[in-house]
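Hi everyone, sorry if this is the wrong subforum. Our group has a chain we'd like a structural model of before ordering constructs, and none of us has done structure prediction before. Sequence below.
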Amino acid sequence: MINYIVAIDLGTSCIKGIIGTRSLTGAFTVIACETESSAGCIRRGAIYNVADTTQRVTILIRKLANKVPGIQIRKVYIGVGGQSVRSIDHVVTRSLSADGEVKKETTDALYEECRTFKPDGLEVLSIVPPAFYLDGNHEIDPIGIPCSHIEARYKLIVCRPSLKQRIYTIAERARIEIPGIFVSPLALADVVLSGTDKELGCALLDFGAGVASLTIFKNKQLTGLCTIPLGSRLITRDLTCLHVVETEAERLKKVYGDAAADKENDSPVQVNSLNGAAPRQIKASEINEVVKARLQEIIENIHARLKESGAIDKLSAGIIITGGGASLKNFDAAIRERFGMSVRHASVNKTLFEKTNASLEPEYGVVAGLLLRGTVNCSYTPPPASPPVSKAEVEEPVTQKPETQKPETQKTKGKSKTEKPPVEETQKKTGFFHKVKGLANGFANDLFNDEVEEKDREEDTETEDTNNTNKPQE
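Answer:
Right subforum, don't worry. Here is the predicted structure as tokens:
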């Protein structure tokens, strides 16, 4: 049996989906990736219009199901990010007896205590494996080490409760089950960061349309995750001040936008005017003046969050950038200049997959990471339809009833009457000759029968007279 894994990432500009298989050995194969616009129904990574989002998720699922004829998709993994998603610290401690040894039961009890923790007004999406400290010393694997005090420092990924509630509402309306909700920035890190990146220390910056997420690692541990509610769509909206519609502003940003453009660049750019007016020309420097002003604000917010985490001087592997906003020309150069460290674009590690039938570009990095986290078969294969039954097979054969024979004519006073021919035979003989013959036979039979009856009456009279003669007189 083939296990199909299906996952969807709810993004601000579009909803992305992926379908793949997982073999018994745990090897993954990517079959296809699909995209559906989410404009207007998802804002800053959070569901805004439930009805519209349900409709577009349903369309996306149908697209994915069409890639594998003969199956139905019943379950879908969901990846979430968005404005309210962030990490918080939670510490669980336990005192042991003198020179007590840490056992698996000890770490399990620490995790169970953390799992029951409910932060006020927040929903826990994920519990990241903790950093252990034994008598104040950091240990990666504490089991088997004697100590008197153990401390587990957890990172909890939390969000607003409404985020999960709306996801389950959509699933109910779309008639699908959700075997798991995963944190999109962590799923992305699984496929674009190496173990060396996480050990040396790095920051993964996903610059999307609605938000920018920042995920920080050091010593193979997650040290922080935050979401900055500033995305590349703000640049697009700012460009509408040049008297263009938003779709035209988006085109200008992608084609002519430059994070490190020269202010003196006066090369002309043709733009489409409002209300169908004739195209006009503006300077490229006008476009990039708007782009750089908003981009500087976004970069400063990212820098402030990274500095707040305390890891800004510990990122030996630098900053890895991805997302639609990161495709802006010279965006990496602007980040490098402000942070003073190495910057590179992310790429999906395709060696994590046995086979890929789809092009795993960085834009599909999140859903690729979600696929790797899936374990439950998401498909249903309907049983083959029964072959149609012909009409001849349904109708029962008609059984001919045997002809009912008429009983023989009763005998009259010990003597039988002449039997009449069957009705069917009589009906068949309809010629003139047969009619005459029938009348003659009938007359002869009647005459014979009258003679017999007369003779019988005479015999009866003689018998009665004899009886009367022999009877004595009184």
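For your construct planning: The two ends are 118 Å apart (CA to CA). The CA atoms of residues 451 and 457 lie 10 Å apart.
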